[in-house]
Each structure stands twice: as C-alpha cells, then as structure tokens.
Amino acid sequence: MAELTDLSMLEAASALRAGDVSSTELTRACLDRIRAIDGDVHAFLTVTDDLALAQAEAADRKFKTRPGEELPLVLGIPIAVKDVLCVEGVPTTCGSRILEGYRPPYSATSVTRLVEAGAVILGKANTDEFAMGSSTENSAYGVSHNPWNLDRVPGGSSGGPAAAVAARMCFAALGTDTGGSVRQPAAFCGVSGLKTSYGRISRYGLIAYGSSLDTVGALARNIADLAPIFSLMAGHDPLDSTSVTDPVPEIRLNGADLRELRIGVPKEYFIEGLQPEVETAVREAIDAFRGMGAEIREISLPHTDLAVPVYYLIAPAEASANLARYDGVRYGPRRGPGKYPDDYFVTRGELFGDEVKRRIMLGTYALSAGYYDAYYGQAQKVRTLIKQDFDAAFKDVDLIACPVAPTTAFGIGAHGDDPLSMYLEDVFTLPANLAGIPGLSFPVGFDSDGLPIGMQFMAPHLKEAQLFSAAHTYQSATSWHTSWPEL
Amino acid sequence: MTDFDPVIGLEVHAELLTRSKMFCGCAVVDSTAAEPNSSVCEICSGMPGSLPVINQRAVEYALRVALALNCSIAETSVFARKNYFYPDLPKGFQITQYEFPLATDGWIEIDDPSAPVSSKRVRIRRVHLEEDTGKLVHRERHSLVDYNRSGVPLLEIVSEPDLGSADQARLYSLSLRSLLRYLEVNSGDLEKGVMRFEANVSLRPAGSVELGTRTEIKNLNSFRALSRSIEYEIDRQATLLRSGKPVAQDTLGWNEEQQITVSQRSKEEAHDYRYFPEPDLPPLHIDETWVEQIRADLPELPAVKRARFMSEYGLNAYAAGVLTAERSTAAFYEAAIESSQGTSPVKIANWLSGDLFGLLNEAGVEIDQSKVTSEALAGLVALVETGQISAASGKAVLDVLFAEGGSPESVVEKEGLAQVQDQAAIRLIVEQVLSNNPDQVSEYLAGKPALSEWFVGQIMRETRGKADPARVRTELDAALLALNDQEQSQSGR
Amino acid sequence: MALTHEEVRAIAHLARLQLTDEEVERFAGQLSDVLDYAARLNEVDTSEISPTASVLPMNAPLRPDEVRPCPPRDQLLANAPDPAGGMFRVPRVLELEP
Ligand SMILES: [Mg+2]
Ligand SMILES: [Zn+2]
C-alpha cells in the first residue's frame, strides 16, 4: 500500500472496513506527517494528539464490536477543525491573541455531529484572525504556507484547513465561509471546498464574524469525500434560530447524466484583472461540461461589482457587534493599568490585530448615528439587488460556473499594507454569501508556476445536491484533484 | 406652583416570571438571593459562538401585557442589537427591539385621587421585549460581576408624556404593577428589582402646548424614589426657568442619600447605540389566532373589576379599589360573597378590608395563605348580621379563625359565644335585675330615665355579654313601662 | 471621503480600541480608501428596494420555556482572567450604568 496519508477519505474508510488499517494507524500516520512537515506549512495552531488517539481507539473498538454494521463513513477518519469552531476543552483562538488560552466549555454543533459519528479530531487549523482575511496573513500566530509553494499564501481565511488537506496531514477539514473563506483557499491549495447554504448547517459554536453571512463548510481531497461530511453536519439544530428545518438532501454520486443540466456563465465574472491562465482553465472546464452534455448559457449578474462594497460594510458592521464581547472580563487575557474603562481600551487595542481593528472601526462607523442610512442601510438594500440577480438567473439555469478567485495563490506579503486591494480579491466569492446560496470550489488546472486553479459552482439556496452531482461527474472524468504537492 | 405644567413620561422595565431565561435554558432565579453565577451558561454569559433562541412564554407574557394595555400587536416585530460596553453586559450588546417593537399605541386608565375613579387615561407608546443585564457588586478597589440576572426576559413599557405630576406618575406605575400582577407575569417585588423605572421630565408654561427641554432620570427602583425624584426635578427645572436659565438636556441619576438628581452623562460622549437588526434571530411573527387565544384568556383587569364591584356590590370607590388592587383579594372577596347566601356584600367588604386585612398585615401573611377561608369569613359575617353573636364576639371569633382555622360556628360553640336570643329567658333576667335593684327602680320611676342604660349594663353583665342587646332593650322597656303603669294606678287610687 | 484623525479617534473610542498615533494615521488612510470605494453604492437607486437583513424567508422559532441545567460555575469561571468568590472581578467601575 502507498503512504496511508495519500489515501482519499473514502479509500481510508474502505481500508478501515476491510480491516487493512486501523484508525489508530491512520491517526498516527497523520500525526507523524504533521510533525514532519507542519513546521514548514504551519497549518495547525493546536495538535490534539491525546484526544485524537483516544478517539481513534474508540473508533477501532467500534469496528471490532460492530463488524458488518453500517457505520458512519467518517468513523475513525482523522480531520482538522478550523480554529473558529469550538471544540470542548480544546484551545480555540480564532487566530487571535484576544482568545489566547481560551478553552470553550462546549463544542460547535457541526463538530459534535462529526465527533458523535466517530471522526477523529487531529487539531485546530490556522485562520485569519476571526476569519477576517484571504491569506491567513492576519493570523496572530503566523501565516500558513501554501504546500504547492511555501512562498505563497494558502488563501484564507480557512488557509490552515486547506493547507492541511493539500499537504495530506488530514483527510478532510472543517472550514467556515463568510465571504469565500472555504472556496478561495480550496482553489489556492488545489482541494475541493464546500460552502453550504446559509441556514443549512448550524452556526452554534461557530465563533461569529458576520452572522448573516457565516456558514460552516468543509474541505477535502475530492468531492466524493465531502459528501458524507456534509450529510452528517447538515440539518436542523434547535440551538440556532437561523437553522432551516428543510430535510437534508441525499447526495447521489453515481455519474449523473449532465444532459439535463443548464449551466450559467456570468459575464461579469470574466473581467479585467482576471489572470489569463485562470480564465483559460475555467473556460476549458466549462467546455468539458458542455462536452458531457450540459447546456451552457451566458448569463448576467449585473450587480456583481457592488458585492465588495456591500460585503465590506455589512460584514464589518456585524463584526463590530460580534467582537464587542472580547473585553477581558469573562475570558481571554486582560491588559491595561487595572482601571476602568482603560482596561477595555488597552485589552482590545493591544490584542486585536490590525485587520480586525480596521473592520471593527469600519463597521462601527457604518452603523453610527448619521451614517447608518448611507452605509449599512444602503448596503442592505443593494444586497437585495444582488440576491435578486441570483433569483432571476436561477430561473434559467441550474448552476452557475465561474472562477473562484481572479488569480492563483499570491505571494506572502503581496498585498502589503493595502487592505482594499486584498478585499477586491474576494469579488467572485462574496456574492454567494450575500445571497446565502451554496458554492463548491474544485481544481480545474494549474498555472505556469504550477499553482492550482479552482472553479466555482453556485446553486440555488439549499440545492447542494446539484453542486455535488455535477462536480463529482467532472472529477470522475478528470484528474486535477489527484495531483498532490511534493512535501 | 402654577406657572409651569410638568410633562412626564415613564419607561418601565419589568422582569417576566418565566421559568427559563429569554434566550437560553438557564433557570430564572432570585438574583438578590441566589449564589452568584449559579444559573449561567455559555449563552447568557456571551461565550463565543453561542446563539439566542426566543422563549415562547416570554412572548406570550408580553402579549398578555400588550393586550391588557389595549395595544396593537405587530404581526412581525424585529429584535435588534443595542451596542454599548459595560461589564454586566456580556455580549457587548443587548438584544432588544427598536424600530419594530412587539406592540404599540395602547392606553391604561389610572386612578387619579383628584377625580372620583379611573378618570385618567395614559397612552402607551410601545411595549417590547429584551434581555436583562447582569449585576455589579462594588468593593473598594474592584467590582464583581454576577450574570445570574443576565438574559432574564424584560418587558419595556413606554408611556407617552401624558403624566402631569409626580403623584400621577406614581399612580401610573402602581396601576402597571397591579396589572402585571393580575396577569401573573411579574411578582411586583420592587425590592428585588423586578420593576425599574425611568422618568423623563420637562416643564412648559401653564397652558402652552410647546414642550420644554426634557431630562431623563434613570434607574429608579421604588415608587418613593420615582415620585421624590420627579418632584425634585420639577422644582429644579422650575427654579431654573423662573430665573431665566435654560434646562440642559441630560441623563440624570437619583442620589438616594442626598435626595437629589445628579447628571450622569460622561463628559466626553453622547451614547451612540448603533442599533441594527439582530442577525441571529429571524423576524418574530405573531400568529393572529395565538393573539386571540391570549386575549380570550385574559383575566378581568383591575379597572374593570373595580367598576363592577361598585355597581354590583354597592361598594364605594375606595373599598372597591382596596379589594381589587390584588387579584387574589378580589377572588377571595367574591368567593366569600358566593358562599354567603345573601349577607350584605358591603358588610363582608368591611370585615375583609378592615379586620382580616389588619390581621394579615400584622402577621405578614398573604391572603392565599390565610387560615381564614372565604367561606369562614362569610359565615362569620352572617352570624354577626343575624345577631347570633355580637360584633365584639365576631372579632374574637376571627382571631381564633386566623390563628387556628376552622368554621365560625364551631368556634362560637367552643367558646360559648352564642347570643341569648330566648325572649322568655331574657325576660326572666330583666325581672331578676329589676327586683334585685329596688332603689334604682324607684329612682327611675321618680324621673331618672337615664338609669335605663345602667339596667342594660347590669343585664348584659348578668348574661356575660351573650344576650342580644336589642332584645334586652325591648324587654327592659316593657318591664319598666309595666312598673310605671303599676305605680300610676297605685298613686291614683 | 477622507476620515480625519479626530473621526478615527472618535470611532475607535466608540469601539473601545486604544490606538497609537501611528495607527490613527494609517487607519485614517485605509478606512478612507474603503469608504471612498463604498461610495459607489450611493449611485444605485434603491428608493423602491427593501433591505435584506437575512436571506432566510423564515420566522424566528420559539423555544418552550423549559429549564436546561447550566454548567457548573467552575467551568464558567475557568476562562476568566480574574475570578474571585464565584464572580468575575474587574477594576472598580466608577461610571454609572449606561
Ligand atoms: Mg430597554
Ligand atoms: Zn444561560
């Protein structure tokens, strides 16, 4: 057998069932690989060796005591969890010094559902501070490196999870996507990443950034591996008032007939600034779908260029309130002269990073007296227009195909001290969050530097099943997803 | 002071008597008594990643109040975040309602002592739901935070500025307290902080419609503080205005020791709460059939009950007010009437609000816990009214009932308090007394009619107070008349 | 629109962030860039458009009024920077309640 860590998640699940390998062996293989290469990649903020090995042993007992039973596909599978999702008793920092040492007293619903199904938690993966960023450069605990080229960013904010999956330190990872934070790092690292519909997976225990935009997602080496993770995490949670009660769709991955499929290609997503190799690869993938029988239509999403300003008012506004609780009273370190209210100012001023402070201020301003209508209020109205663009488009097409990001992974430090230029990188991913619809990012090629290129599918709200079947059919016919970086 | 008219509006915050908190399952506990931080979870302490879910009963209670206040219920209302920093506010924002409150445009009638009854109608601007904050305990160098109260459902009731005096403000808040207790949504225990008041006060020249600059007095926790602070503020503003100085718009606190209002605004900033819709809670939709169900289940409210007690039972305004202030008292009263079989409701009211209330107050016992049942009280009043026992014996019987319970009849029997009603027996005693006191009889016959009172006293002493005084008088008058006739005929002979 | 240093300080005060002079300088420029970019939103006619606060066409679910056991106090205080006597200790709060 090849290296254990080279297996896909479903291959590993088969090996576990066949008795060829134990969960403990898989887990040790992952922990060994983390030890060997994570010094270079820095995908993990916390590695939970003891917890993982205990969970692996429990999984192995289950395989022994209940052979032949239909056990969850994630049973015994080592995964990583983005450090914005609470895992009971395990340090959860959101990549911020303001949560240094914080151990949540409860687990996120998404994590609980996987753990109860037997998944093995290897550790907490790096993120831009409070998921605010597109590169992990905003992590207070150091940038993660792209496994394809260590001088490049892995994307963000789920850069740690994407790098961990790409570097085969885990079989899958949980991420979160508020403005592209699963899809863009998946594209930069050449893995498959799912952003779920808003309301599909409970946000309970997802440490909030932009509450009306935050979604839990997952990253894996291919689409088929994502399906069981999605199915387990999805579904109503009474602890989240925005969790939908709609039934979770069954994901069918049996080589769907694409002749009935109508794919829309929005002209607004092929713009100046799009790296030509990205455009070429995405157009070739779209051609491949045409070749498999899908009907390709050019469509228009006319308000696309407004997504950046809308997002960068709404998300910071919500964040300014969501991050008000970090005051050094109940958890996290406290700084200052031991005076009130000085300690509030010093704690927050010293322990939040620049990007977090910028967004808090942006949001505070957008909500403040006299500016609400012009900024936050207007952004909410234009958000309606962006959502209406999608509603109209999905009357004619089943899926929308487009690039994930304008470029492949950029160099660490490339955006220097120009946040606006970094924000503009999110132009293709933000609209799905503003509209609450699901998206899937998967590899469709490489650029001349050998960096992966991703394509994105978007589907109507709650139509994740459509994303899966089409993208899986593509992966059955192509092999981009089977290339791995040498490390 | 007649040169200015005060214009006063009140904001009342009332905790709701739900079992669990507004947005989490933690028990609502008495935050003045419970161990600090003993009923706190990740949600009400604002742990990262936790989310709110609305308590259905809190909404139901809020609807009860809103309907009782004659408000329009919003089909859809929206929760919002009110952003400010304070150690007792764990999330850095309070979940409340702002632009779209649960209910608006209601009114309540309050009792104005300067008019006969329920004459003053105060308009209610809005009623909305929110969460309470935690509590701070101050030490010399530190403050300590207890989040037991954090997340307790709070109802905010905002009046229009319809109140014209500190006394009206007090009566308004008393009426609200009575209403909330009637609706069984708030205990009314002000000393436990379950109701808090904020008053805004301005003055305008008498007869003018133009509003003056208003000040806001925050955190008033008793009826006394409420009326004192408003009185103080009216005087303060009037003094300023009379000397030609402007009133500054301000937020004030009430200094209990010095009995003065003090400016509370920090110098540097006006509050900017940056309200926006709470993204963690979809809009609150209120089903109309639910509203109608709650409306149908509303109890008879104090003002209506009071008017009915006056017309149906012939009570005066004061007595009706006393007996309807608490739902339990009114229920006790009506149960007593029910079991009384025709005793005057006014007499029952007198015994209840006079004698029984006295005993209850003295012992600090609630009427529901009283050993005197409504049936026993009715029976007791009937015994007195039919002359079977004297009023004095009645009070003695009530004392026994209050201490031991039981029926008035058995107490009367056990204590031997039954009145002697037998005409013949009374006649015999009268004759005995007269024949034992020949000197007094002679004096009486010689023209000292006042002595008849002395004979009554002697007879009552003879019967140890058990003779019916009315019958005693009849028999005595008859006997004395007979003696008189006798003497007339003797002297005429 | 360019934010002045005073405006940046005022916002930072509202958000309880202590900034260095260097940060004020830097953030004034960066925030102004973003707000300038956002100004394009005001070119869109939204007079007939209602705002989207949430994409979900749902009403708030209501939870039955049931008590759920809460975690032990030790656990609640385990993350506190300065626990004391079962409470969260902070420097003496002088300002009256907001
Ligand atoms: Mg309030
Ligand atoms: Zn709680």
Number of alpha- plus pi-helical segments of chain B: 15
Strand order of the largest sheet of chain B: 3-7-8-11-1-12-13-14-15
Shape field of chain A: globular
From the 3D coordinates, which CATH architecture of chain A would you assign?
Alpha-Beta Complex
- Through-space gap between termini of chain A: 19 Å
Biggest interface found: A-C, 72 and 52 residues
Indicate the low-confidence ranges of chain B by residue numbers.
Answer: none
Count of separate DSSP helical elements of chain A: 15
How is the biggest beta sheet of chain B arranged? 9 strands, mixed
Counted up, domains of chain B total 3
Radius of gyration of chain B: 32 Å
**C-alpha Rg of chain A (nearest Å):** 21 Å
Task: Name the structural class of chain B.
Answer: alpha+beta
Structural class by SSE content of chain A: alpha/beta
Order of helices and strands of chain A: HHEHEHEHEHEEHEHEHHHHEHHEEH
- Assembly classification: heterotrimer
The N- to C-terminal Cα distance of chain B equals 82 Å
> Strand order, biggest sheet of chain A?
1-3-2-4-6-5-10-11-9-7-8
Helix content of chain A: 25-40%
Query: Judging from the principal axes of the Cα atoms, what is the shape of chain B?
Result: elongated
Low-pLDDT stretches of chain A are none
Q: What topology emerges from the helices and strands here?
A:
The complex is a heterotrimer of chains A (487), B (493) and C (98).
Chain A: H1 9-18, H2 23-41, E1 44-47, H3 49-65, E2 78-82, H4 109-116, E3 120-125, H5 159-166, E4 172-176, H6 183-189, E5 192-195, E6 216-220, H7 223-233, E7 262-266, H8 276-291, E8 295-299, H9 307-322, H10 342-351, H11 354-367, H12 373-393, E9 399-403, H13 419-424, H14 430-435, E10 439-446, E11 452-458, H15 464-477
Parallel strand pairs in A: 2-3, 2-4, 7-8, 7-9
Antiparallel strand pairs in A: 1-3, 4-6, 5-6, 5-10, 9-11, 10-11
Helix pairs in contact in A: 2-3, 5-6, 9-11, 9-12
Chain B: E1 4-15, E2 54-55, H1 56-68, E3 72-73, E4 76-77, E5 79-83, E6 93-97, E7 103-110, E8 120-131, E9 135-138, E10 142-146, E11 153-159, H2 166-182, E12 195-205, E13 215-220, H3 223-242, E14 250-255, E15 260-263, E16 276-277, E17 284-285, H4 288-296, H5 302-313, H6 317-324, H7 327-338, H8 345-363, H9 374-385, H10 391-404, H11 408-415, H12 423-436, H13 438-445, H14 451-462, H15 469-492
Helix pairs in contact in B: 2-3, 5-6, 7-9, 8-9, 9-10, 12-14, 12-15, 14-15
Chain C: H1 5-14, H2 21-38, E1 62-63, H3 73-77, E2 83-84, E3 87-91
Antiparallel strand pairs in C: 2-3
Helix pairs in contact in C: 1-2
